[in-house]
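Recap quiz, item 2
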Amino acid sequence: MNLTLGIFIGILLITLGITYWAARRTHTTSDFYAADGQLTAAQNGFALAGDWCSAAAFLGFTGLTALYGMDGAFYALGPLVAFCTVLFLIAEPMRNTGKYTLGDVIRSRMQTRTSLLAAIAGTVVVNFAYLMPQMAGAGVLVRLLTGISYDWAVLLVGVSMIVYVAFGGMLATTWVQIVKAGLMLSAGAIMLVMILSLVHFNPLTLFADAEQKYTAKYLLPGNYLKNPFDQISLGLGYTLGLAGLPHVMTRFYTVPDAKTARRSVVWVMFLAGAFFAGTTAFGLAAANYVGQDVIRAADTGGNLTLPLLAQYLGGGKDSFGGNLMLGFVAAVAVATILAVVSALTLSTSGAIAHDFYVNWVKRGQVDGKQEVWIARIAAVVIGVLAIALGILAQGVNDAVLVILAICVAASANFPVLVLSLFWRRFNTGGVVGGMTVGLLSSVVLAMIGPAMLGADALWPLVNPTVVSLPLGFLGAVLGTLISGRDVENEKRFDAFLLQVHTGMTSR
Amino acid sequence: MARNGTSLEAAHALVKELIAEKLKYLVPMTIIFIVSYIGLTVLAGFAKDLMGIKIVGSVNVGFALIAFNYLLSWALAIVYGRLAADKFDPLAARAAIEISGRGN
């Protein structure tokens, strides 16, 4: 385990070096939230891949495939398909209408204070629901890999994240993501080549061996997701929830224009898509070579499948190669957590400092220099809160929180964002209606479902998106119709459309 | 900097044209990927036997459809990039010129 600890410290030092470099270049508010909009399509594509491949995703997908077969492959496919929605509907309009946050887009459409508050609520709930399990996951993973205690692990991750964000802003967060994505993709490529050489470059052998070892049932759907509607919820949550995750969407502000935003989505679709397809191969290989019993013995949820497979491919338990591979994959997992929690903290600080304090409380009357400092202070406060929640969350079921984050993103943020961009009659009442109904239905249904209450669940689905998403849209439409027409807002819509589709303002 | 009423109206008209053009391509493309992916999850939930029919070796319909969805998503991304560059960007640029009096 000393080798792992060494690689882990190495990664911390590299990321702190990046932060020092980034901090010297971060002066204005635009530097802090959006890296001054100066990234290239490839840089943002790698960073998006970093954001979107959280540790829960790439450790989780591999583990699910190893233990439950096809359902794991479903989980891995969703994130790629999700980017079709983002590419067609969201990326370019976001770039054209906002500055730093999701709240910017809603504010620029509605120009009301109430709608801004609703957007802030959506961002903060989603980000914290996502941040808490990431912190808890960081604690468990760092403890497992390096041997330091859970509380210290959370504290170490939390303090690093605060340093990256508060000093280096979006530039540091982005480069931490790029380094992590680069490490992750190279680890994936190396492992894929090793697996393929084991099966003599015939991938069909992976399936045949798995069938022989675990019977044909293993390669069928429904081993993990027993309720058919949970399958559909998962699909909906992914394809539409991604478009409502604020920390991923704000990445489109880091590029100079809509065309670059578009190209960065194509980059991430190939990078992350290929990696996720790889996790299916890793899962099957792990089931075949490491074995489900060994995987379950290490962690019942299968989260250590990928490190175990790496160790096997490197030469096994007591070999230097095996421990080197294990250490490398473990370090990638830790770097992933650091990068994702940083992005979440930055995006939350945008909602609190930029949307709430500057634009809501101060009505925009804050000078640029002051705003950067407010943003940094917000990042520190959010980071401290995240550490506290992470320590409290030890042993709490974090699966329910991840589901909740994606579900709220799909059921509250997504309807409000899409209707703001495309529906002329949509108004402040609709924003409030969609946000409230989407949020409440997600939270209530997730809390009374089997993920939280187990066998005593009052409601059969783990993931309520299939019900809460239509409810969110219904709330948005009813809110719009009940609150009456906002004629001024409808008149402004032509000017807003011009901005959505060309990035030009006529005001 | 021509910013009189006529050029604003012209820009708004071009944006309408651009939206119509986008809808013409993006609505079918969106329907294709939603049907293909959500359809896959529906089959997984309700048609397990169909998903289990073997195609090549031990690879069954389910895994083949998963592979198809990967290829479809990548193909749609490339098609969208082409469409945007060939059809959407020129219209957006013309609208931008009407507004600002200069190129984008």
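The longest helix of chain A spans residues 150-198.
Chain A touches chain B through 53 residues (CB under 8 Å).
End of item.
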